[in-house]
Amino acid sequence: MVLERFRLDDRVAVVTGAGRGIGAASALALAEAGADIVLAARTEDQLKEVATQIEALGRKAVIVAADLQDLDQVAALAQTAVDSFGRLDIIVNNVGGSMPKEFIKTNVAAMEGAFHFNVSTAHALTRAAVPHLLKGDGGSVVNISSVMGRVSGRGYLAYGTAKAALAHWTRLAARDLSPRIRVNAIAVGSVATSALELVTGDEGLTAQMESNTPLRRIGDPDDIAATVLFLASPAGAYLTGKIIEVDGGIDQPNLDMGFPDLGVPE
Hints:
This protein is α/β, with parallel strands linked by helices. The chain has a seven-stranded parallel beta sheet, with helices on both faces. It is built from eight helices and seven strands, in the order βαβαβαβαβαβαααβ. Its EC number is 1.1.1.159.
């Protein structure tokens, strides 16, 4: 039965940035499919709430409140999974982000910081996970990239560059780690998370963003979580090195995503 291919019974996943938004929704989707989860984020109270929901689904959750900008702490999550559950099968590199900023204020430190938070963290955790993923039937790595990695938009210089790097890191890592470990990414469009509150709190900006999206709505974290489950499960067993665009159909080469002109004044 094809639906059985979406099951993850007794598999173990690490999800970063799991306290809210896409990370929390992804963790719950994986748990509903049968996986036990290591939840990592900065805010312990949020992680506890997600863990309670996972336990209500009949699965186990271990929470790790950590600064995931610290590469040692993020890499240690792989061993935490093995120590807690005896195995590791899935990595969801969700932690990342960068606030919009005009070009003239985007200094080298901002560029390097965006790369560190969006790419280096994914590399550190995946690299630490590889020996454990290889002990089982292989594994799956799912990276959360962004539509801004393939389109242009004002204010997204650091963020878009970092997410484009993460997308290509996905392709290169997939080749290096094949055939036992699959590595894929999701290029996320506008999704109603706390990171988008600047837009969703303004009716005009929300309307502009929806008009830029062919499906005429802002996405829901569960839209992304469903794709995470597909890529992490045997249902996605014949995919690696792919960037799945879950963005409501956006295809414009230039997209301001609802933000005002943040560039150099004329």
